[in-house]
């Protein structure tokens, strides 16, 4: 699989290429991915494209970075329920474990506000352990240079 063809989810691709900055925005919350390494990257809509229906828990977006190592960023933009966001990301990891098996998985959660009880919740701790702490959460805007 070449760098330009590392996306196993092409039907839900919103952007791809050596894009300098990718924005994932919803209801006043934004995740900003700054592609300093100039890797080939792919932005994928998960909610209501890759995973449809109200019954399935799913995050909002996925960004695949096709450099070495290949990385997947699962992004949830949420009000204030960090524990539910963790459950959504855990479910997407489970649903697509085969497709994402070649990727280092990272979680990014942007919230309106975070409660201490959510940081200590079982599902958030489970996600942190599963991803070996490759998780970040922040209020309103999470911007990172990769």
Automatic annotation (TrEMBL):
<protein>
    <submittedName>
        <fullName>Uncharacterized protein</fullName>
    </submittedName>
</protein>
């Amino acid at each position: 699989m070449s760098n330009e063809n590392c996306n196993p989810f092409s039907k839900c691709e919103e952007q791809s290429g050596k894009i300098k900055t990718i924005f994932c925005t919803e209801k006043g919350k934004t995740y900003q991915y700054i592609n300093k390494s100039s890797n080939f990257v792919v932005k994928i809509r998960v909610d209501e494209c890759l995973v449809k229906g109200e019954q399935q828990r799913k995050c909002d977006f996925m960004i695949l970075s096709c450099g070495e190592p290949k990385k997947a960023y699962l992004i949830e933009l949420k009000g204030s329920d960090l524990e539910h966001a963790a459950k959504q990301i855990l479910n997407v990891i489970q649903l697509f474990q085969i497709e994402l098996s070649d990727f280092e998985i990272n979680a990014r959660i942007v919230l309106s506000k975070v409660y201490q009880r959510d940081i200590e919740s079982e599902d958030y701790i489970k996600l942190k352990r599963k991803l070996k702490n490759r998780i970040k959460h922040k209020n309103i805007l999470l911007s990172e240079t990769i």
